[in-house]
Amino acid sequence: MSVTITAADLRAAGLDAHFETLDRAIESYRDGGSPNVAIVSEPFGGREALVEYVTDELDEIEHVTFPSSATESNLPDLNEFDALVLSDCHALFTRRIGGFDVLDQFLEAVAASDTFVVTAWNQYAWQYLAAVRDVEESFGVIVPDPDLSAVGVEALLRDRYGPELPRFIETGDAGRVKSIGFETYRLRLIGTRTVGIPVPELNLEYLTSWSPRDRDPDIETVVFRKIALLSNGNPGIACVLWERSIRDGEIAPAYVEELDRSPVLDDQEALVCWTILANDDRSRSDLQSVLDGIAVDRALQTLEQQRLVDLAGDRVSIQPEALHATVAYLRGKRLLW
Amino acid sequence: MVIPAPSVATTAVLQSGIAGSDVTWTTVLNAVFVLIGAYVLARTATTGLTLLADHLETQRFRVMLLIPIAKFLVYGVGLYFVISWLFELSTAQLVAFSGLMGAALGLGLKDFLADIFGGLVLVAEQPYQIGDKVGIGDHYGEVVDIGIRSTTLRTPNDSLVAVPNFAFVNDSTANANAGAAEMLVVVEFFVDPAADIATARRIVEDALYTSPYVYVTDDLPVTVLVEDNLYYRTIRGKAYVTDLREEFTFKSDVTERVLEAFDDAEIRSPKVPAGVGEDTPEEA
To answer: What is the set of domains in chain A, with CATH numbers?
Structure first.
């Protein structure tokens, strides 16, 4: 399940600065300049909405979306266009020997051309390419990830789903009882004896829904704050969490749930996960060809069992609710820098 | 030979110590209980800190450095209580007694005591910590434990080597990562001088950048060096591995993919003429 974020949604969320940056670049192009623009966001972050805004502003602009594992033949001749929007630029590389050739060629062409080029990139692919290819040096204007504040998330949700919102309810103890629990860890002593040691475990769901004004809780604020926290300010994920948290026309803090455990992956599964994350989505066959020597189907099965990816037909994408747990895990493994 | 009479102060300490030492079975049992308690506490602290460290993955070194400190602290306090209970000494007497005891034991257990003091210096100076990859004397491996008497290394062959702590004082110590998870790994390839060196270099660079075990930042870049020799050229790739535990996995991953790409690009290994043994890559 995913939702389409529009430019109107981002404006409602208070991301005017992003649009102003794009407006300045468009103005510069109209004045005869040719700034190279990179729109960078994580999956579900509203990248398409910003691209849509540029194409709406410039009638004459061409829009090209690169297919997965794009080849040299997919590269347009930049000199044939005055202005060009290029989506899914992260498809220009694959993480293998020789996998940067098309990207290098593209960056060379961008540097040499006078065309107004607006590119859209997956944030995690961008971070990787910034480290290994200095990709950011090719773009004078970088529009960063739309990272919403709690107020922005509330404004987005009210604008998109209002004015008739579901009824906000407090579900009492459910989901808001314990801030800390204990799990027993068995410590092995000499011989076969073991001793149980209680290990404290935080109840993150409770902590994130906690309101300092417990005497007079504003339940709406608690719900919006929890969605903002669990979505990390990602507009697409905030909308998915909102839609999934409504039960029979009611919403409560305890209904807002994220992936409740950290992934456990081996090296190959983690690499498959990174490849999906850094490409928004991929087809199975494409993954198999990119990740030569890796049992992709088995890895995907594990990822699906842990509710990290969404398998829709041949396409594989990251589950919105699992995005930040996955990112945190891959950061811990240092697959994300 | 004239044996000097003990000074008044020393005699007082000894007399006081002997007079106060009502060593009964209860005292001994208490002492044993304290030592067992210290052992259990040290094990628990080590296990707890290790679990926490493993959970933190690449940040584990922040916690692991506490393990030897906790152990020395627990055993030190335990020993202090045992000696106090057995000999019932005041703090001043305890200090004087420790000196005499140390001198007496030192004659027979010189090396053992040297290792213990080496351990104390290790804890204070921390030239390496648990989790580091170090070379001490002839041994190289990951530090898995810093004990009271010895440091345990896990070698690349998965053997556990107990290196006496005093070796740190006597021998030079090489630390590959100094408390950080990442570590520089060097991978070398030898190619024929007739091979396309630019392509070979690019293949090695790509292999390093695309490995799932590489860690690249502005401060920790990937470097590829080319060296010319009479009968071969050396391509030396240097990159940081995400976690020092992946040192050999990283090397193997890069080597395997580079050799495959060399084959595809027809980049050949050097042909060394017969009788040029001293210049062969294997001995370089």
So the answer is: 7-143 (3.40.50.300), 150-255 (no CATH), 267-332 (1.10.10.10)
